[in-house]
Design a protein that fits this description.
Elements lengths: L1 H13 L1 H21 L14 H12 L9 E7 L9 H15 L4 E4 L14 E8 L8 H16 L3 E6 L11 H17 L2 H29 L3 H31 L4 H28 L7 H32 L20 H7 L7 H11 L1 H16 L7 E2 L11 H13 L7 E6 L6 H13 L4 E4 L3 E2 L5 E8 L6 H21 L2 E5 L1 H35 L3 H26 L4 H4 L7 E2 L2 H29 L4 H28 L7 H33 L8 H6 L10 H11 L2 H9 L1
Parallel strand pairs: 5-11
Antiparallel strand pairs: 1-3, 1-4, 2-3, 6-9, 6-10, 7-9, 8-9
Length: 748
């Protein structure tokens, strides 16, 4: 591996014009594809294998004109103080609004509040339900404008009017904090690399890689039904790993220059060693993201594969474009220890310093590692207890999916949600739809009546609407209004209670009762996430464990890496619960409404955080392994690994945290939660697990850390991440090099 990447790095360095042209062409091609692609259409959300999805599919089959996946809107009216919605003037205003709403070409139906009995008992609140023929993403702008105009006309008449539902859903905005995150990354790069030019390379290549990835996603969005969250996730992860991977190679390149090597040789060795770590770190991220396919939820699979593709691009750019740009930069990239004149240049390189002083002052990484090696038990206990305390809130984790009740109070959707709760009760925002499949029943109408009577008597039910048959008379729909809000455990218990009652009804009437609707879909989604977590964790950790055995040629080091990951991901989930469910520091994070944690958050964090955690494991521990292979004692190898890698790993972690934290400013709660969760997970994993627990464990294990059974050692491929094969290979290559080409490279 190291030898192949060494040759690839030197080739990219020498053929820099060709390599740069390829990447510019790819960026242009992706950009043209994104610009010419049709706008993204509907984003289907399906949960194969669940009862809610089965009922949804049955509705589409038995009620073909129902537009089960069409957009909906609830126009909620509230009378002025001291008045009622049944007053003649207010009633006339509502009827005029209903007439205006009915004129739209995409409108399937509008329910008159007074005919549909959609007026609250106290008469102060009423609502008109609007159904559309197309989904919210496909609604024409003119249709949305007509909806807003009708609502505004009713407001002008003196009513309070808000609009809920998905008809007015907007594309989420990330806000200015995303730009701030990139700015922080730029500052950290300048401080770490000591040069504006060197700092600019990782930023430039990361932006190019993300540009290619996001543009490709945009070009394929309509064909593959990719949602806006897919591109946001790809951007988030692509920026983070793109900057980090480039940083590791540029940093190693500067270290090789400080050893006195020519620039082409330094590039080859940097790509052969740090590039090997980049490849395997990238593989772990790709495994984790692509592994989301095992959950068998199409939306999540698409998100994972799109983000994995962006990571692959980041790896390829780090291995090829970075060497090419280093060739263009020439002497503007200085050896490690030297800085540009703008940043106080004139400092001597680390090699020059060591020549004048045989015992240079140890850096912070060396001092910290030496302390950990002397006090491994204390550091280990401190790290484990600290992460355990952070993970404590996980015990009260509640899962759900965001609805209008989790929107900011500044939105009309949230205000409509609150008005409906005020007028009709909290359960009115999450009605359950029962689908009665009576095709096998001797008396379908009697079966539907039996279902209605049975459900009325269940605890937690406020109202049950009469059964509505399809044209064939063999399938009925029944709406059930709970007395609790959609995201509550009481509503979840009611769904399970209805399904239990349905089993008895089927035995008596041969009619199957299925529960669907947004609330039931969310409950089934959460359950599917829970059921898939353990198999997914076993698959991802198992594959990465085998990969790391080949990288480190050890059993205990990969095992320690996996256990450390579990600590960091649990601690990160605990922090997410504390902020988004308990409300700790909610104002600071811009969380206006606390509630259940997004259902996909645990499994998503397991995948992404595992991949990112293995990044730091590979980058830091390969340096230790390299020192150990070259003859150092285990404890000294730990210190050596920190001397060379701690500064860069710290910078990489800060950069990744800054990029992820930038998405906390998003207007979409899902993106906000993911950004915070990943940022805090990187903090826990990089600074507590990898910087404290890992060296403490390695110091305690000593040589046992690098033990590998002989039979397994013979069976494993030699990936040579440490670059052992480069010690003689580079000399042989230079002997075979063309003299004219060598002289040209020296002049660079």
């Amino acid at each position: 591996m190291a030898t192949f990447l060494y040759k690839l790095g030197r080739l990219a360095f020498r053929r820099r014009h060709f390599v740069a042209l390829i990447w510019v062409a790819l960026l242009t091609l992706a950009g043209v594809g994104a610009a010419s692609a049709p706008a993204a259409g509907t984003t289907s959300f399906s949960i194969p294998g669940t009862e809610a999805q089965k009922a949804f599919d049955l509705l589409e089959d038995r009620f073909p004109g129902m537009s089960a996946d069409g957009a909906t809107a609830r126009v909620v009216f509230k009378a002025p103080a001291g008045e009622k919605m049944t007053d003649a003037e207010n009633k006339a205003t509502v009827k005029e609004t209903v007439r205006e709403l009915s004129d739209g070409s995409e409108v399937a139906s509008v329910a008159d509040p007074y005919k549909a009995k959609a007026v609250s008992k106290d008469g102060t609140v009423a609502y008109a339900a609007v159904s559309y023929d197309v989904s919210g993403m496909e609604l024409a702008d003119s249709t949305k404008e007509a909806l807003e105009e009708a609502a505004q006309n009713a407001r002008d008449a003196g009513l309070t009017v808000e609009v809920g539902g998905d008809a007015l859903q907007a594309t989420p905005e990330t806000g200015t904090t995303e730009i701030i995150g990139i700015a922080v990354a730029a500052v950290v790069l300048v401080i770490t690399l000591g040069s504006l030019v060197a700092a600019g390379l990782p930023l430039l290549t990361a932006i190019i890689g993300v540009g290619i990835g996001v543009a490709t996603i945009t070009a394929l969005a309509n064909t593959l039904e990719l949602g806006s969250t897919t591109s946001t996730l790809a951007m988030m992860i692509g920026l983070a790993v793109g900057i980090d991977y480039a940083l590791f190679i540029v940093s190693r390149y500067r270290a090789e220059l400080a050893e006195g090597r020519d620039r082409d040789e330094a590039v080859g060795r940097a790509v052969g060693t740090a590039g090997s770590a980049v490849v395997f770190a990238g593989l772990t991220v790709v495994i984790a993201l692509a592994g989301l396919a095992v959950v068998n939820i199409p939306m999540l699979t698409k998100m994972g594969l799109a983000a994995a593709g962006t990571v692959v691009i980041a790896v390829l750019i780090a291995l090829t474009m970075i060497p090419a740009l280093l060739g263009y930069a020439g002497r503007k990239i200085q050896p490690a220890g030297a800085k540009s004149k703008l940043l106080g240049g004139g400092r001597k390189s680390s090699k020059d310093q060591s020549t004048q002083n045989s015992q240079p002052k140890p850096n912070m990484g060396t001092r910290w590692a030496s302390f950990v090696v002397r006090r491994p038990v204390a550091v280990l206990l401190f790290g484990v207890i600290g992460l355990g305390a952070a993970a404590a809130p996980v015990g009260s984790l509640e899962l759900g999916l965001p609805d209008d009740g989790s929107q900011p109070t500044s939105t009309t959707q949230r205000r409509a949600y609150d008005l409906l709760s005020e007028g009709f009760g909290p359960g009115f925002n999450g009605p359950l739809m029962l689908v009665v499949d009576a095709k096998s029943s001797d008396d379908p109408q009697e079966a539907a009546a039996t279902v209605t009577d049975e459900i009325k008597d269940l605890e937690g039910v406020v109202r049950v609407t009469p059964a509505v048959p399809n044209k064939a008379g063999d399938t009925y729909t029944i709406t059930v209004i709970p007395d609790s809000k959609p995201s509550s455990t009481e509503t979840e218990d009611l769904v399970h209670g209805i399904r239990d009652a349905g089993a008895d009804i089927k035995a008596d009437t041969d009619a199957e009762v299925l529960v669907t609707g947004t609330t039931a879909m969310n409950i089934d989604f959460s359950q599917k996430m829970n059921d898939a977590l353990i198999p997914y964790l076993a698959l991802v950790v198992g594959l990465a464990f085998l990969l790391l055995i080949a990288v480190f040629r050890s059993i205990l080091v990969p095992l320690k890496a996996a256990l450390g990951f579990l600590l960091s991901v649990l601690a990160a989930l605990g922090a997410v619960v504390a902020v988004f469910q308990w409300g700790w520091m909610a104002d600071l994070m811009g969380v206006e409404e606390t509630g259940p944690i997004m259902s996909m958050m645990p499994i998503f964090m397991v995948g992404v955080v595992f991949g990112l955690a293995m990044d730091y494991e590979v980058f830091l521990v390969t340096r230790m392994r390299e020192a150990y292979v070259h003859g150092e004692k285990p404890s000294q190898a730990v210190v050596t690994g920190f001397r060379h890698g701690a500064r860069v790993v710290t910078a990489a972690a800060v950069i990744m945290m800054a990029v992820f934290a930038g998405f906390i400013g998003s207007s979409e709660s899902m993106v906000k939660m993911i950004g915070f969760g990943l940022a805090i997970a990187v903090f826990f994993d990089a600074f507590i697990v990898r910087m404290a627990i890992v060296p403490a464990v390695l110091a305690l294990l000593g040589r046992k850390a690098w033990w590998l059974p002989k039979w397994l050692d013979r069976a494993l491929p030699n990936v040579d991440v440490e670059g052992e094969g480069l010690r003689t290979k580079s000399d042989d290559d230079r002997k075979d090099a063309d003299p004219d080409e060598e002289r040209q490279l020296v002049r660079v």
